[in-house]
Design a protein that fits this description.
alpha+beta; Phosphorylase Kinase, domain 1; five-stranded antiparallel sheet; three-stranded antiparallel sheet; 10 strands; elongated
Amino acid sequence: MTNFSKFNSDLNQPSLLDELINKAVKPCFTKVFNQAKAVKLTNEASSVTANVLTVAPLFMDNPAGLIGSAIFNGLNQAKANENLKTDFVLGAVKGLLLKGSLAAANSIELSASYKGAILGFNNALLETSLNRQTYFNPDKNTYSLTYGLNKTMSIALNPSLLAVDGLSFLASETVLGVMTYKTFGQFPNSPILANTLTGGTFGFISGASNAMLNPQANLFGILAKGLNSAIINSIAGSLGSLANENINILPKVENLSPQYLNPEQKLLQDSKFTSIRQITNDKYIGIVDNFPDKQFVFRKLPDNSQTSNLTRFNQRIHQEVEAYKITKLMGLTDAFPLTSPVSIDIDGQVQPGYLQEIQGVALEDFLRQKASLNGSDSVSYFKSKPELRSSFIDALAQRMIFGEWDNHAHNFVINRAGKVVNIDLERSFNDLLKTPQYGKTLSRVSTLADKLAKDVNQEPISPVFSQKLTDFLSTYDTPSGKLALP
């Protein structure tokens, strides 16, 4: 029979995990500090270590993550009393479900704020419902399922908590988007960096939410608790990712320039460029004598550039020149604009840069214009045009082949034939062993392409494109074929 008089004392009793950690760290402090300081430092170290041990397994991809999450959450909830086994099992189940919900959140195709609110609700639901003490009614000095469920839902559905969750994830996604652009799409592929950010967000939500449940809480206290928990969980996220294989630190971007040009590119390089108008300080639109039926944009090397900008500019020239060469080898007509590095005389000064064919209007602008004329939205108009969808599927597949992650709807254009083709493959070829994130541009420009990619998800590429890929592989995926590649 349960002794309810012991309930209040049980609340303040350290968990088994705290006791295990105390036994390990206390001797370290007692040898250096006096007893009072040693006890305080031991308690702080125990709290931090316990949090890290329960959160770190959430970011492990291997089976050890599941096992660790169950064991450490179980130990963190269990106390040396008559309910030890019950509390351990509840904690272990909570650990498993937390890990599953965090993994599932990555596949949810919702806005950051909605995802944060859902994940926060789920976290509060598990933390509260899988805790034996939630069901203790102090007024009646007994356990009550109804009392516990009502308490659980009142906490999980607290509007203030849900707002904090949504805003926290929105801020996290914004930071992730900026970091993704700054690192040429590599940030999400670095487990240490991405999991550190996710862990920090998860920690802030947990810490701030717990603080808000205190009736005496103020804004400063809530933020302090959230930031403290965010720091601890950031550490846990980075440590958890260390247990995973194939950790990818951001690659060094080399200062690259094309070593070989195909005949069309060489002809463009030897052409005379006549400027029609200047768009920006470093961008001009004009025509060339060797391709009179086409317009080109000239991008010159930016003036007074920092080393990082020069590296990125040279990389862009290399990537886009190579992209054009490969699409031509694949037999893809007009799949990517003709591009070549050039040096052009502008106002009496020879300016290095590159020329690129202008193929058409941006897909986003095209869809919004057509949708407006037809009284519909962009996605609905897109769905109503099978040929447009088919060419978009092929264009998106080409970006996947090149390892290009930046797939917002201004990086696709409608060419003269009315087909969707690619531009801006400047971040391709960075790491072809890592699959870029598709259906989630993390773009500060537009997320329309996310919706388009979701609409065509799981649909096959066209038979024509499929055959061209087959022919390309049969020609070049051999020892002699690889030697023949430029």
